[in-house]
Design brief:
The structure holds 2 protein chains of 2 kinds.
Chain A lengths: L10 E9 L4 H14 L3 E7 L8 E9 L10 E6 L2 H7 L3 E10 L13 E5 L1 H9 L8 H12 L4 H12 L4 H15 L23 E5 H11 L4 E4 L6 H10 L6 E4 L3 H13 L4 E5 L1 H17 L3 E7 L16 H6 L8 E3 L4 H18 L2 E7 H5 L1 E5 L48 E3 L13 H21 L5 E2 L4 E7 L4 H13 L4 E5 L2 E3 L5 H6 L1 E8 L10 H10 L4 E5 L8 H12 L6 H9 L8
Parallel strand pairs in A: 1-4, 4-5, 5-6, 8-9, 8-10, 10-11, 11-13, 12-13, 17-18, 17-20, 20-21
Antiparallel strand pairs in A: 1-3, 2-3, 7-14, 12-19, 16-18
Helix pairs in contact in A: 1-4, 3-6, 4-6, 5-6, 7-8, 7-12, 9-10, 15-18
Chain B lengths: L12 H4 L12 H15 L7 E4 L14 E4 L5 H11 L5 E6 H7 L1 H10 L3 E7 L34 H8 L3 E6 L3 H13 L3 E7 L22 E2 L9 H8 L6 E7 L5 H16 L4 H11 L2
Parallel strand pairs in B: 1-2, 1-3, 3-4, 4-6, 5-6, 7-8
Antiparallel strand pairs in B: 5-8
Helix pairs in contact in B: 2-7, 4-5, 5-6, 6-8
Classes of the chains: A alpha/beta, B alpha/beta.
Chain lengths: 612, 296
């Protein structure tokens, strides 16, 4: 960000730090939606305490006129509501940044010259504007007004959004919201005024843009793909998906069941899929451990099923409100026996919608469980993207109850290995009805433990996914196809990895990136791509493991036997900063290996405390 | 959700017979299978709509012996699986077959929730008070003192009282029968089939291999006395049902408890009807479009 008067800023990172009951998420949410409506790109990042209510909380918004790939390494503007907010987050403010603090509650260090500090009596001015006390709600709307003033945002549009959102909450609420917003917007910053103005952005989107978080995109992606039955059990950070589906599915004629536990949830989903209605279940890591039993059944019974895993820090109860990409192994390999399944991971909020859609169709086509691996950061961050074209992105899944002829076998050993079961209600012309089972079986579904039969059936279940692997699109390299360093990533880290590539290339370094969207089976072409680079690092939010590389790196090493594959890993429960990726890359390239924990302590501090 | 209906020609029990059961000679489960054939034949449930689900255990092999749509699922999880079928496909009446291990041990939690939700299905628990498939270990219904491979000096843990558990959980149809009296089994199964809700039958089913004679005391042909639920018992009286359940072994046989409560199926259908009344027949595409406008 550049705040020289007259020079418009390209993007800005604003962090609001307060307590979770202050409604700071609302400030960020409205800013994000405003950005979506004014062709600015946006990405947000939030932490919420795992406690039931109260506790420190932040919401970070990065607004920009170009493509915003990450939530930003350093904060340009910190808005601190309390002394603890100031103390815990001042370290994230960049040199020369701006601190706006509630002068009723915060006393910043008067000798600090690293940044500029502007005190605004947020609490008392809010009380003056709308009455009540400084502990009441309203400060968030005051701050929203302040920010709108500072950046010269479209306050009429913002006010329209506030009107639309709070209309149903009564006249008194409405009066306070608008009153506080106006008071904030009327605040005179003096010489700071009009220093922060975004460069005008060229309108790019053809269709309307929407602003939502990753969990919302998954829930609606599932509905659009025709999912009409789901079952789940509450667990952070998956719960909001089931809350949306429970509320929305009835409108579409569907049902979502809150099951008694994770095992029942996936069992119900298996039952509905068996009955002909492809079902969805989901959870976070601890629930995948519990669902493993039925996942294995679905592989054996060749039952289509979609399982969402919103990853959080593990193992065990772990870090319920922090991000980690440490469920790759369990997603790919959980369940005993040889149990091939499909695993894919969305890269951003928009991809959450499309990857869910694709997961549904892969499950249908290949008759097996499909795991969708997302994570806490993606679940809660808000992005703007083009509204899907629903004339193409809506499908109806009707159970196939057409009578099956005498040749029908539920587990026919076809050339491609693909076979589909017949839901109950399907008439069998020859009068012979099938059993769907978790026992090893012959082509008709009869239990069969003959050696040759097991060999045939194991191969059949594997073969169909080998076919899928051939059909998957070859991934493309971000940056030149040959060079010094290739950064491989998967899931929600795509943005920061690409930003790291941009930054390194701008500094003259030869760095490219490869995003792996399909984790099982792997798409073709990765081996050839790796041949074009001297150094290969797999960047992932999990531990470097016993042997110095993380979970995807281990999968790639196993697949390609390439010992040049190394890892860039971290386990602090926070999304990757661009700097962290580049620092580790430089250290590993120069052979200057340092304990990663030393650098992490230096860069992150305890800013996101509170999870437990 | 809907499904097409097909009218099949009348079938006989021969059409329903599949593999010869792998049960041991004399096993009580044969009688229940035979009664199930008789019930289907009598009621002529369309052949393609007969659906039986089972977990793991001797009795859970049941679906393989019925020539109809069937599922052999996981140990203890047949009930939630059947819940998925029942809710997704209101045109089917699902039968779940399993043993005491499935129902009261590894799947003990599921039965409570299917009962309180009142999911429409019939659950036949073939209780032999022993683990048979794994060759004689103590089961959750084995009486104290029962000698098994895991309790060589006699079981020490207090057994579950199935009737008490089922009534307490909120099952809306709770009955008890004995595999040695097929006519009584048929009567209970038919009542269960006609019950609109979660109907459970505990059927004492002797394991001749590992717990022979377990239920002789209720078998008139073995000198026992079959004690029917008294004619004046009010099956809607929950406390009276508990009192029947408190009777010492072999206990009473018949319908202990039967009440009408809206099913989960009906409740969900109502939610759908109410939600769709508000959207006035909008298509999925229109609904999504409208919802996404709110996010813009």
């Amino acid at each position: 960000m550049n705040e020289t008067p007259g020079r418009p800023v390209a993007d800005a990172v604003i962090r609001f730090a307060g307590n979770s009951q202050d409604g700071i998420q609302a400030i960020g949410g409205f800013l994000a939606r405003l950005a979506g409506r004014t062709d600015k790109d946006v990405m947000t990042y939030m932490t919420i305490p795992a406690t039931i209510s109260g506790g420190p909380s932040i919401y970070q918004v990065r607004l920009g006129t170009g493509e915003v790939l990450s939530a930003g390494d350093d904060v340009d503007i910190l808005v601190a509501f309390y002394q603890h907010s100031y103390q815990n987050h001042i370290g994230t403010l960049r040199d020369g940044g701006l601190l706006i603090y509630d002068s009723d509650n915060v006393q910043p260090d008067p000798n600090e010259k690293r940044y500029r500090a502007v005190g605004v009596p947020i609490s008392s001015l809010t009380v003056e504007a709308i009455g009540g006390t400084g502990k009441d709600k309203g400060k968030n709307m005051f701050v929203l007004g302040l920010v709108a003033r500072l950046f010269d945002l479209d306050d009429a549009k913002l006010e329209g959004m506030l009107n639309a959102y709070y209309r149903g909450k009564g006249d008194d609420v409405m009066r306070k919201v608008i009153g506080a917003f106006h008071a904030g917007h009327a605040y005179n910053f003096g010489q700071l005024d009009a220093q922060f103005q975004f460069a005008p952005s060229a309108p790019t989107a053809v269709r309307t843009r929407v602003v939502m978080d990753g969990n919302q995109a998954i829930a609606y992606g599932a509905i659009a793909a025709g999912i009409r039955f789901g079952a789940g059990y509450p667990i952070t950070p998956w719960s909001t998906i089931m809350e949306i589906l429970r509320t929305e599915l009835p409108k579409y004629g569907g049902i979502f069941v809150q099951a008694e536990d994770e095992l029942a949830a996936i069992a119900m989903a298996c039952g509905a899929s068996y009955a002909g209605h492809l079902a969805l279940t989901g959870t976070s890591g601890p629930g995948i451990s519990l669902k493993s039993e039925a996942l294995g059944w679905a592989v054996m019974a060749e039952m289509p099923l979609v399982i969402v895993d919103v990853q959080r820090g593990g193992p065990s109860t772990g870090l319920p409100t922090n991000v980690e990409q440490s469920d790759l192994n369990i997603a790919c390999f959980t369940a005993h026996g040889d149990a091939p399944r499909i695993v894919l991971a969305p890269a951003n909020v928009e991809d959450c919608f499309y990857a869910t859609f694709e997961a549904v169709n892969l499950a249908r086509e290949y008759s097996c469980p499909v795991l969708l691996l997302t994570d806490q950061a993606l679940a809660t961050r808000v992005e703007a993207f083009e509204m899907p074209d629903f004339s193409r992105c809506t499908q109806d899944l009707t159970p196939n109850l057409e009578a099956r002829g005498p040749d029908y076998k539920p587990y026919a050993n076809t050339a491609d290995g693909i076979a589909h079961h017949a839901p109950p209600g399907t008439r069998m012309v020859d009068g012979k009805y099938p059993v769907v089972t978790g026992l090893e079986h012959d082509e008709s579904g009869h239990p069969a433990s003959r050696p040759a039969n097991h060999v045939m059936m194991v191969a059949k279940r594997r073969r169909k996914l080998q076919l899928l692997a051939q059909r998957l699109p070859k991934p493309t390299v971000y940056g030149p196809a040959e060079g010094h360093v290739l950064l491989i990533g998967w899931g929600s880290t795509q943005g920061p990895i690409r930003e790291a590539v941009d930054k390194a290339r701008a500094a003259g370094e030869s760095v490219s990136a490869l995003h792996v969207r399909y984790l099982m089976p792997l798409p073709p072409g990765i081996g050839e791509i790796m041949e074009g680079f001297h150094n290969i690092f797999v960047v992932e939010l999990n531990d470097e493991g016993l042997y110095g590389y993380g979970q995807l790196a281990a999968v790639l090493r196993g697949r390609y036997g390439n010992a040049r594959i190394r890892g860039i890993n971290k386990t602090d429960g926070l999304p990757f900063k661009v700097r962290e990726i580049l620092d580790q890359m430089h250290r590993k390239l120069t052979g200057r290996e340092v304990e990663p924990s030393e650098t992490l302590l230096a860069t992150t501090g305890d800013e996101e405390g509170g999870a437990g | 959700m809907s499904a097409e209906t097909t009218i099949a020609p009348k079938y006989t029990r021969k059409d329903l017979t599949a593999d010869h059961p792998t049960w041991c000679p004399g096993c009580g489960d044969f009688s229940i299978l035979s009664v199930y054939f008789k019930l289907m034949e009598k009621r002529q449930v369309p052949h393609e709509k007969i659906t039986s689900v089972a977990g793991i255990g001797c009795s859970s092999r049941f679906p393989y012996f019925v020539n109809a749509h069937g599922v052999h699922f996981l140990h203890g999880r047949a009930i939630p699986f059947a819940t998925g079928i029942s809710l997704a496909r209101p045109d089917l009446h699902v039968f779940v077959f399993g043993g005491d291990g499935d129902a009261f041990s590894i799947g003990g939690n599921h039965i409570d929730h299917a009962a309180r939700k009142n999911v429409k299905m019939t659950y036949v628990i073939m209780d032999n008070e022993v683990y048979g498939l794994t060759k004689k270990q103590t089961s959750p219904t084995s009486p104290v003192g029962f000698k098994s491979k895991t309790d060589p000096t006699g079981a020490v843990d207090h057994p579950i009282n199935p009737m008490k558990k089922l009534i307490a959980a909120g099952a809306t149809f709770v009955a008890r029968t004995h595999s040695h009296l097929p006519n009584h089994v048929l009567e209970m199964m038919e009542l269960a089939l006609d019950h609109d809700g979660f109907s459970v039958i505990e059927c004492l089913s002797e394991c001749t291999e590992f717990y022979p004679g377990a239920f002789d005391s209720a078998n008139p042909r073995k000198g026992g006395q079959f004690q029917a639920v008294p004619a004046d018992h009010d099956p809607t009286d929950e406390l009276a049902a508990y009192r029947l359940a408190m009777a010492p072994p072999p206990g009473y046989f018949g319908v202990f408890y039967r009440v009408q409560r809206p099913t989960k199926n009906a409740r969900e259908a109502q939610l759908i009807a109410e939600a769709q009344a508000k959207t006035a027949g909008a298509s999925a595409r229109e609904l999504l479009q409208k919802t996404f406008q709110k996010f813009s």
